[in-house]
Amino acid sequence: MTVTQSSAGEVEKKEDLVTITIDDTEVSVPKGTLIIRAAELIGIEIPRFCDHPLLDPVAACRQCMVEIPDMGNGRGMPKPQPSCAITVMPGMKVNTQLTSEKAEKAQRGMLEFLLINHPLDCPICDKGGECPLQNQSLSHGDGESRYDGVKRVYPKPINLSAQILLDRERCVLCARCTRFSEQIAGDPFIQLMDRGAWQQVNIAGDQELESYWSGNTIQICPVGALTSAAYRFRSRPFDLVSVPSIAEHDSSGSAIRVDHRRGTVMRRLAGDDPEVNEEWISDKDRFAFRYGRGEDRLTQPLVRDNGELRSASWPEAIDVAVRGLRAAGSSVGVLPGGRLTQEDAYGYSKFARAVLGTNDIDFRARPHSAEEAEYLASTVAGSGLGVTFTDLENASAVLMAGFEPEDEGGIVFLRLRKANLKKQLKSYQIAPYLSDGARKMGATLIPTIPANEALTLSGLKDVELDDKSVIIVGERLARSPGALTAALELSGRTGARLAWIPRRAGERGAVEAGCLPNLLPGGRPVVDAAARVDTAATWGVESLPTLTGRSAEEILAAAAGGDVKALLVGGLQPADFRDPALVKNGLENAGFVVSLEARSSEVTERADVVLPVGLLEERAGSFVNWEGRNRAFDVVLKKPNTMSDLRVLAALADGLGRDLGIRTVEQAAAELAELGPWEGARAAAPNHDPATPAGVGSDPNSAILSTWRLHIDDARAIDGEPHLAATARRPVARLSQRTAEAAGIGQFVQVSTSRGALRLPVELVDELPAGVIWVPTRAAGLGVGEHLAVSSGEVVRIEGAN
Amino acid sequence: MTDPITPVLTANWADDRAWKLTNYERRGGYATLRKALRSDPDDIATLVKDSQLRGRGGAGFPTGFKWSLLDKDLSKPRYLVVNADESEPGACKDMPMMMASPHTLVEGVIISSFAFHAHHAFIYVRGEVLHVVRRLQQAVAEAYSAGYLGRNIQGSGYDLDLIVHAGAGAYICGEETALLDSLEGRRGQPRLKPPFPAVAGLYGSPTVINNVESISTIPAIVGNGIDWFTSMGVDNGKGMGIMSLAGHVNNPGQVEVPLGTTLRELLDVTGGIRDGHRLKFWTPGGSSSPIFTDEHLDVPLDYDSVAKAGSMLGTRSLQIFDETVSVVRTVLRWSEFYKHESCGKCTPCREGTWWLVQILQRIEAGQGQEGDIEKLLDLCDNIGGKAFCALGDAATSPINSAIKYFRDEFEAGYHTPAWELFPPERSVVYAHAGRTTPPNPPEPVTSAGGTGSAESFGGIQ
Q1: Which of A56, A408, A737, B252 has the CA that lies 20 to 30 A from B454?
Q2: Above 60 in pLDDT, residue A65?
Q3: Average pLDDT over every residue of A214-225
Q4: Please, what is the end-to-end C-alpha distance for chain B in angstroms?
Q5: Are residues A276 and A324 in the same domain?
Q6: Is B200 an interface residue toward A (CB < 8 Å)?
């Protein structure tokens, strides 16, 4: 049951408080509080179904009836009233079921009504054991029903989407799911239909519930009417062990609850964290947790012998790895990837500097730039808790660039949409067109051709920004020359605060840990001698490498050319890079590759030593979310031999005759805390020129590419969860009718570069500037990097296809 | 005895093609509008308020007072919505009104809208009555052609557009906020109040929703003055109203009388109960009003007197049932109606009507179980006053009142089917071929046994 989330930490002003009497107990609550919430504050639980603190009142289930003998004006209400829909009035008197027979009878009667058409199939229902209908029937209802009639029956269940199933017989028609879809997610694809007892939740025709948030409807369903294809009939709540954790599929750091049974995670639910994800999580955070159960799971160390990988013992594998690394000396490139916990990332950062003696470390397994590294060093690293979700909600305006809130921001989208609906937040989207997500949060488009963001930012008109405004820059801005420079300049000019929101859970933590060629932990610039001395002192080493290292792409290119002799690689995928071939080439031509991974990958295939690390659910640690908030989580499933990246790195350091000094999450966290944020001069801000405006050439078959990753796509994170994968949006290429006609494109388009081609169905979006084409970055089998080796803002060839 | 009939709204109903504009004007129609357009709108609003006209749709909310509740902010448009979704079982006053004299309503709409500064008005008509919809559309088109609607009406500078909107056939859309949802193109379900329509109604703007008869009465009040109007009726129930008589009367139809007239007076002037029979029970205001019996023949039919006697004036739909009719059967038919028309939004109405019907069905079939009557009463108590809108309360009225007056008939349902006690063919006015209707009602059959007839012919209509 949901408990009120107001007032935590807030000090209400005296004049805003209203005093009412509930069951002879006085309580003072903020003006506008609903009776049912006020009652919760003094420990009186009024039964309810349709009521949900994050949804608008609807007063449909009539379960929460109370008597109001005095509305505060001396007059009482002649009939019982729904406490979920009436706000407190000064002097109001309320009698709940505890002191009013009328209220008690009304509630008892309502529960009896709710059960007459309910199948009472609790013994086989997913919700049985954690069901508000079951619980409240026991606490507030009669033991026996007087109903002996005919129940309403339906075929069951029906699919609302590939993932969400509806059992209409169990439904009590509280409208929580439909209100969630409309009010919170903005995907009103489920509605109440028909009437009377035949009223039912349903979809229209074959338009299924297309939403990245649909799983929340299951969680808030007060009965077992909504179930997921993934969890239906898999376990009973009372057999589950619940562990609070943090979701790993975006940078929001959503609180989740992980339920496991006999060593297997059965499901994940949204946790309740008013500061971060409130009570919602994305479908990916909810359902994508089976990725470690496939045959590709690495369980034993592997070493390459005569060209073939074979199983090896840990001591042997560590030995082989140490030998290879020792031979390479400091000529090792470190690519930890963007999905690590802060503690693991810190392990890589320290290992690179203190053990290997190199600054060739870069977590960015995606299109990136030097300007971005400078921006992260100067503005993000070591800046602590910056703009928060609450700040977004209360902002005077939000300007977004290189960032798609729903696809790339997770909970950020829900919060921005809430702010728009509840607080009329004005937001502006610098993009070539307004996506569905941006539209749902009421954003205004500032049409911009990809790679021209810098000019838009510096020439911004008609957007009023002040010190309560926020400029959100996404990771894609890295590939737009001068854009981050321009965003900094705009922030300086207007006072608007900057928020960098990457896609991956581990990126902000990796920045804090110093997994960048120009950055030591806590925002310490590599080139700052004082910062190096400070770090070296904490680490107990004499000195640290002084020169800025290579970026990820430079490391891989150098490895291909023999300038970097060995690679130490964490969990990353070549397909995530702008040019996957460059990555594979680097891995293949590096003299020696050590891979730390949980699952076999394209890196594994090219590694000399593979050291298997545990899944996230088997490990503890913390993510730093985009706000800069530390999101620590504990082990969900204790497996005795689970290795963390940190533990493996410590073993490698031992083998190399150096002591990493940290072996456990606690030690890493303690050392990071000891280092703290850098208090000296920050790294210099980037100062890059904008790109020459990418004009539309005279060739109608030449177009500028706009692309970003959709929330659900070809990610390996959703492996093992086919129902979730089936809710991915149909991949389409978007371009304006004018562009399509000029290029002779009909229903299908072929997008190509010298490296390859993609064929996609066309969706005409006339908002798109002429000569711009949008394609999803990683639709299943249609990877832009893999087939085209370009990223957003680059030129591609477009032609009609059959 | 003096003839109580006071034809005002119904005065022209018998005219040749009374619905045509020319015929309406020949009788002085639209003269009041022309006069009104030259006066101060606020004066008209005050006049209506002072006339003490109470809403004729059922609840009896003072019409002028309703207008005065409109949000004072004039920056948003104001709307008049005429509730012409007459669907109450037994109710039959608005439909004949709109069929016979649609211009009376149109004139009322224009004067009312003018009085509270609305420039858009809507008539929401029940969708099933296509003939009424057509007639209204014709009348509105005529009024536009004649310059009574549209821009600069009769040179007054006042603009008004009137839209006739047909519903899709749901009783719930007569509930004013459900009507608004339906009018906006949504599913008709009642809205959570506050905000009330006077503050945020149609499209979130201040809206007045009035019944057809209320609005049709406006021209008469404005034309004839307060003294004329208040000379009719009783305290707290001024003026006249259309009573519709249906069922076992010799002359069913509409009669316009001052409020406070009794059923006995009405029967006296209209020809009484059908010959050879006597009154058993009746509804003062359609199926939603608790039933009355022959003890209530002298209850004055005005808001307060009917309420004092335990029912409500409602829509003045006087459904008359003689002694051939089974109360159980009648109540079951009404309950089936409420079950079918429950919108499903709230639990007590949705589930309660589903349950009530099943109990009543077995009582009708003579298979009632010990305790069923108590159960019915308790379920009605769990529905009444707990539902989202008045439909839930309405569903309980016939059951509660029928058990109050005819408990023995429900008890008989524990062992004898209603169709044996009250063979339906005795209730019909015209016998089916091959069936004989006894000239005199027999004594109720109390013996069980006969298989009975599953005949479901409605009987009285």
Answers
A1: B252
A2: yes
A3: 98
A4: 30
A5: no
A6: no
What ipTM describes this predicted complex? Answer: 0.91
Residues of A in contact with B347 (CB under 8 A): 60-63, 110, 113-114, 172-173
Cα–Cα distance measured from residue A260 to residue A292, given in angstroms and rounded to the nearest whole number? 15
Bin A789: left if φ > 0, else alpha if -120 < ψ < 50, else beta.
left
Return the H-helix or E-strand segment holding A722.
Answer: helix A722-725
Q: Touching check for A149 and chain B: CB below 8 Å?
A: yes
Computed over every residue of chain B, the mean pLDDT equals: 92
Is-contact B33 B111, C-beta < 8 A? yes
Spell A484-523 as b/e; 16+ CB within 10 A means b: bbbbbbbbeebebbbbbbbbbbbbbbbbbbbbbbbbbbbb
The DSSP call for residue B193 is S
Per CB-CB distance under 8 Å, the chain B contacts of A152 are 354
A196/B341 touch (CB, cutoff 8 Å), yes or no: yes
pLDDT digits (tens, 9 = 90+) for B89-148: 989 999 999 999 999 999 999 999 999 999 999 999 999 999 999 999 999 999 999 999
CATH number for the domain spanning A454: value is 3.40.228.10
For residues A448 and A324, membership in a common domain is answered with no
- Residue B460: pLDDT band (50, 70, 90) is very low
- Identify the domain containing residue A651 by its residue range: 302-366+507-675
| Residue percentage of chain B with pLDDT more than 70 | 93
Question: Cβ A195–B344 below 8 Å, yes or no?
Answer: yes
* Same-domain check for residues A561 and A598: yes
Whether residue A117 lies within 8 A of chain B, CB to CB, comes out as yes
User: Domains (ranges, CATH) in chain B?
Assistant: 21-230 (3.40.50.11540), 233-322 (3.10.20.600)
Chain A residue nearest residue B341, CA to CA: A196
Q: Is the pLDDT of residue B448 over 80?
A: no
Cβ contacts of B378 on chain A, cutoff 8 Å? 109
Please state, in angstroms and rounded to a whole number, the distance separating the CA atoms of residues A560 and B428: 99
List the alpha helices (DSSP H) in A479-545. 483-494, 507-513, 529-539
φ, ψ of residue B378 in degrees (nearest 5): -70, -40
- In this prediction, residues A644-652 reach a mean pLDDT of 97
Q: Say yes or no: A793 contacts chain B, CB-CB below 8 A.
A: no
* Contact residues, chain A, for B353 at CB < 8 Å: 196-197
Q: What is the pLDDT of residue B438?
A: 46
Q: Are residues A461 and A565 in the same domain?
A: no
pLDDT band (50, 70, 90) for residue A694:
low
Chain B nearest CA to A68, separation (Å): 13
Residues of B in contact with A62 (CB under 8 A): 346-348, 386-388
CATH number of the domain to which A34 belongs: 3.10.20.740
A472 with A544, same domain?
no
Q: What is the mean pLDDT of residues A99-115?
A: 97
pLDDT digits (tens, 9 = 90+) for B21-49: 999 999 999 999 999 999 999 999 999 99
pLDDT at A7 over 70: no
Q: Does B348 touch chain A (CB under 8 A)?
A: yes
Give pTM, 2 decimals: 0.93
Cβ A428 vs Cβ A400: under 8 Å: yes
Our count of domains for chain A comes to 5
Please indicate, yes or no, whether residues A551 and A633 belong to a single structural domain of this protein: yes
Cβ-based contacts of B169 with chain A (< 8 Å): none
**CA–CA separation, B389 and B374 (whole Å):** 24
Q: How far is B286 from chain A (nearest CA, A)?
A: 21
| Whether B340 contacts chain A with CB within 8 A | yes
Query: Is A194 an interface residue toward B (CB < 8 Å)?
Result: yes
- pLDDT, mean over chain A: 95
What's the average model confidence in pLDDT over A41-70?
97
End of a domain among A54, A89, A111?
A111
Angstrom CA distances, A304 to A326, A362, A596, stand at 17, 25, 14
> Same domain for A618 and A736?
no
CA distance B352 to chain A (A): 6
Chains A–B, number of C-beta pairs less than 8 Å apart: 101
